[in-house]
Amino acid sequence: MTVDEANQALAEADLLVAGEDVTAAIGRLAGEITTQLSGANPVLLCVMNGGLIFAGQLLTRLVFPLEVEYCHATRYGRETTGAGLDWIVRPRLELRGRTVLLLDDILDEGITLAAIADYCRQQGAARVMMAVLVDKRHDRKVSSGFRADFTGVETEDRFLFGFGLDYKGYWRNAPGIYAVKGL
Fold first, then answer.
1. Averaged over 10-34, what is the pLDDT?
2. Which residue numbers are catalytic?
3. pTM over 0.70
């Protein structure tokens, strides 16, 4: 994708959730997470690269003791459709006996999040929870009823970008949640 193509994608995209609404959703999530996890000594595990912006904005609002770690697993790379899970970096902190909160940009089908959650359980995590900025409304989840414990916003089933979500490697930095024209 060229810079001109990236600029055209943003110019033609539909804004689904304005930046200030995303920021408000992150604030709401911070309150919910604080209520449930402030005494749990959790490990917050940012799923890279998509979870980076969400995690960065959320973490400064969580004023209780926690540890932060990251992992990098992807099904998409720079494509718009997924393939098998590719581990780039696995978590390095000891997860045995800990509450782990996965932070990711989106819950689409949930295949990646489910695989990372399973890995954390295999490493001995006492409890694995999930917080996502965006949940797409559709019936293609990895299993019936699969949901995050904390969800910022729900959107229609389109190809999204912004606030951590990318379109062919670009526009993770877009200041809202956008849908690609025609996708």
1. 97
2. 108
3. yes
